[in-house]
Write a structure and sequence with these properties.
Two copies of one chain form a homodimer.
Chain A lengths: L2 H6 L2 H22 L7 E5 L5 H14 L4 E5 L8 H6 L6 E5 L5 H4 L2 H19 L6 E5 L1 H6 L5 H9 L6 E5 L5 H6 L2 E9 L15
Parallel strand pairs in A: 1-5, 1-6, 2-3, 2-4, 4-5
Family (chains A, B): Belongs to the Cob(I)alamin adenosyltransferase family.
Subcellular location (chains A, B): Cytoplasm
Organism (chains A, B): Oxalicibacterium solurbis
Amino acid sequence: MDNEQAKDGGLTERHNARMARKKEVVDKKIAAATRNAGVLVITCGNGKGKSSSAFGMVARALGHGMKVGIVQFIKGAIPTGEEQFFRRFPDEVSFHVMGEGYTWETQDRTRDVEKAQAAWQRAQALLSDPAIGMVILDELNIALKYKYLDVQQVIADLQARPAMQHVVITGRGAPPELIEVADTVTEMQPVKHAFAAGIAAQQGVEW
Amino acid sequence: MDNEQAKDGGLTERHNARMARKKEVVDKKIAAATRNAGVLVITCGNGKGKSSSAFGMVARALGHGMKVGIVQFIKGAIPTGEEQFFRRFPDEVSFHVMGEGYTWETQDRTRDVEKAQAAWQRAQALLSDPAIGMVILDELNIALKYKYLDVQQVIADLQARPAMQHVVITGRGAPPELIEVADTVTEMQPVKHAFAAGIAAQQGVEW
């Protein structure tokens, strides 16, 4: 038994052996995943983190020199931090706020349908532009859930996009047909939320 | 029955009535959540979106004129898009990459512990600076899971931070003691991942 083992009861040695086995497994998986392609990512569920995850990917894409297009389908009633920030880069980010608030705020289905369809036209322009490396369709799932848009039309347009273009779709209530055609899907599950403890939505965190 | 109803079988009317009820419920909850406070957010689980959600909150915070501090505990082996992007704003973002790769890559526990402790010292400096509105502790959960850091020390430092400072902690394996003291916790659950379909980690999406 060397000094290191004497100090930590073999923890270091066991850890190192476990990590060597883990490295083998991870390396094998990485070796198998070699294809490059534009991926369709969906973030759904009731937990916090769906839109913020999309905006984190915007930052990543910009760091790699890509151009990004963003369409917000539902939000639009208040200016958000993400809008204020990404509008600083008009040559790199094309930011379209096409909503007027959540559906329970507007209470006008006819108007919501019109707004969603106008937003989808913006999305179609981005999805047919090979210069755009990533397209964010924020809260599109909600527009689909309420059938403001036809899911088959949306899927057809997504599948006709440039081969290396990434798309991130966010919002509760993603329809199963959309999940079926997506590459990466995460469900954000709420474990707890500050809201329940009486804390108001905080700048920077929620908007 | 008016024209609108004749057209859609009453869908618009039912939708509007449902949204009116929903608005009442949401408004009541908003009225109850009025306290302003720095929130402690944790993103955990095995799904994609934990770190990207944190970086989306960085964008939001910057949009609201806040200063942000970022410490990456594990990542550091390859330059990421988020690092390249947020380093553009040295006056607003203080970015510290303190890791050398995932633990199964380094395979050296003693060194991992030293790196994690050096990273925590950086975190402590940010957590005691009231000029920093948001602190991101990326992959801290992994450093805690492997006991590179003492969770009680980490909690004590978090709780002693400025009252309005937000903290976002990411990574798999968040310890229960940390979840207990957090305000908002989301578990990212993988529904599917492009990796499994043979697609390599894509720039802008995964890093």
